[in-house]
Amino acid sequence: MDIIEFIEKDDFFVIFDNGLVKESNFISNNNFVISKNGNYKIIYSNVVANQNVSFKVDKGVKANITEIYSKYSNNSKYNLYIELLDNAVVDFLTIRFVENEINYTSKVVLSVNSIFRQINVCKINEQTSGKVVVELNGNFSKADIKNIILNESSKKQKHEFKIMHNISETESYLLNYAVCDNKSILFIDNEGFVFEGAEKSNMNQITKGIILDLESEISANPILKIDNYNVIANHGASIGAIDDEELFYLMSRGLTKADSEKLILSGYFTFVVNEIKDEKIKDYILNNLLRE
Fold first, then answer.
1. Facing residues of 34 across strands?
2. Range with the lowest mean pLDDT among 147-161, 165-179, 256-270, 277-291?
3. Three-class SS of residue 287?
4. Does residue 270 contact residue 121 with C-beta atoms inside 8 Å?
5. How many CB atoms lie within 10 A of CB 225?
């Protein structure tokens, strides 16, 4: 399916081609303001170099934003900067099904009472390096990030997530679902900071990982740095293989081992994917995550 087909009639959209705006119904360059409530699609097509995008979400605006990467990006660097002004609410879906090596960085800055909810789905078939930084700079701001990361590339991949509580009464939730197969190596580094003066903050970080073969590795490194006593801060990581009893049960019902693993992974991913309201995009994600 061509990713451009995800653009619906009433969507605001922009298609970037090799770093520049190719087509859009609301902007003309890579730096813009989202000033209206609505659904937005950001499509990266045929990126072979650098892609830099920067935008603000205006005060009080509620935006549903879907960001989709071209499968054929090659040795590309994506740099994204998002700023949410006071009371802005953003639901942000990132889809990265990419065949070649890419590197990405994202920075999200939140103001007073702004909310940023992200689902990030990532399956890249080459070496990858990515970094996401979230700064909670306004009281009562909240970030909720859920990541699905699948590495079966036989290469090393590293994904870093840094959450910074810079002011009091802020919340953040970071949940990673990781899967590794085919002699691949996956590093997931979570860093959480609660700085002096950021009392009454609430920070939670969890990584769950499944390893599908004996030669793959998942390394989860949760780090919390707290300069305040009056906060709630939790982190954890659990990495393991698929339960043998679950596999045996499904295979005893006539499924192959590969099909049994797919069924189990489907349930593993569904917790996050079911939050996506667009059925066409939901099916696209599950089909790509589970295809061989």
1. 57
2. 256-270
3. helix
4. no
5. 11
